[in-house]
Amino acid sequence: MRADRRASTVPRSGSRSRDLQASYARCRRLHRAHGTTYYWATRALPRADQPHVHALYGLCRYADEIVDAPGRGDVAQRAAALDALRERFRQDVDAGRSDHPVLAATVDTVQRLSIDPDLFLRFFASMRMDLTVSTYPTYGALERYMDGSAAVIGELMLPVLRPPDPDAARAGARSLGIAFQLTNFLRDVDEDLGRGRIYLPLDDLERFGADPRRRMADAPWRDLSRFQIARIRAIYREADAGIDLLPARSAKVIRAARVLYSGILDRIEDADHDVFSSRARIATPVKLAVVGREVVRRSPRDVVAGGAPGAVSRSTRAAAGSATPPTSPQPLPAQR
User: Fold this and answer.
1) C-alpha count within 13 angstroms, C-beta hemisphere, residue 97
2) Of these four, 16, 58, 153, 190, which has the most CB atoms within 10 Å of its CB?
3) What is the DSSP string of 117-145?
4) Domains 15-115 and 133-325 belong to one CATH topology
5) Distance CA 171, CA 154 (A)
6) HSE of 183, CA atoms in CB hemisphere, 13 A
7) What CATH number is given for 15-115 in this structure?
8) Segments making up each domain of the chain, as ranges
9) For residues 147 and 30, what is the distance between their CA atoms, to the nearest angstrom?
10) What gap in Å lies between CA 85 and CA 66, rounded to an integer?
């Protein structure tokens, strides 16, 4: 069955269904509040698929808040809470249902899309690293962390996007997840320092003589930032081949997210690599414009064709004044 014609299979009535609807709604709120770039791209997916993306994001965000949100206790308490969530997830998947306010939607999505639960266990392993690991000596060490924190997110999305050949699309999905996270790492250096973490390889920092703890966009930092941006853009290009393997509509949506996220790198460059004074952002009207533009574009391959890296992302500024936002998303089941 084609992805853009699949009917929603989320239950609509009964007490269990109401709890499930409430869980999907909560995951959607988490997605909209904390993952705005990807949230707006998700709105252009087929309506029946959107709640499943919210459910996947909802669990990831819920786990992230256990690790980082204020008032969650010391490291031991956070580790215990995260382990309890992981075990609850495993038990509920085995049972085929959950009454947890977030896990209910995630478990339902896992069951309906036949997602491998082991992907989530890799995610939990990386989240647990955040409780004890604050730096990464090399890019290889950072890659091992990103396997569960970023690459696996791309793999989780494949059942939603339904490429004709999932195995062929997997490498591109992993690359896109990594590119997204590396973009976040560079943008959020100052915020991560506040949590006592540095997600930039220490050997790269040493090579350029850069120290983010100075919180200054000095010459060594700018050189380091240029190097990181070049690395990230190369990974985005690797991901593009995987996007082309998706069904047409899914490809357009993921391409829009790629354009928006890579645009953050343009904002960092526009600020002369100063990620300490303010956070690089893409305005919501621009996000809506880009999603609308990509949905009506004939071929997803046109989006990043030709030109220097980042050139298309810079065009999002002009797009905000001309493109039409995507159609309103399908309400979650409880709102139907």
Assistant:
1) 7
2) 58
3) THHHHHHHHHHHHTTT----SSHHHHHHH
4) yes
5) 9
6) 28
7) 1.10.600.10
8) 15-115, 133-325
9) 23
10) 9
Q: Which tens digits make up the pLDDT trace of 23-32? A: 999 999 999 9
Q: Encoding tokens for residue 179?
A: 């590119």
Q: In whole angstroms, give the CA distance from residue 245 to residue 92.
A: 33
Contact 152, 122 (CB under 8 A): yes
| 11, 22 contact by CB (below 8 A) | no
Helices (H), 188-218: 189-194, 202-208
> Is the model's pLDDT at 310 over the cut of 70?
no
Give the largest CA-CA distance in the chain: 62
Helical H segments across the chain, by residue range? 15-34, 36-42, 50-68, 75-95, 103-113, 118-129, 139-146, 152-161, 166-187, 189-194, 202-208, 219-243, 248-270, 284-296, 311-314, 316-319
Residue 123 to residue 102: CA distance in whole angstroms: 16
How many whole angstroms separate alpha carbon 126 and alpha carbon 144? Answer: 9
pTM of the full structure:
0.84
Residue 1, number of CB atoms within 10 A of its CB: 7
Residue type, 200: L
In whole angstroms, give the CA distance from residue 137 to residue 20: 43
Q: What is the DSSP letter of 195?
A: T
Q: What is the pLDDT of residues 22-57, one digit of tens each?
A: 999 999 999 999 888 878 888 888 899 999 999 999
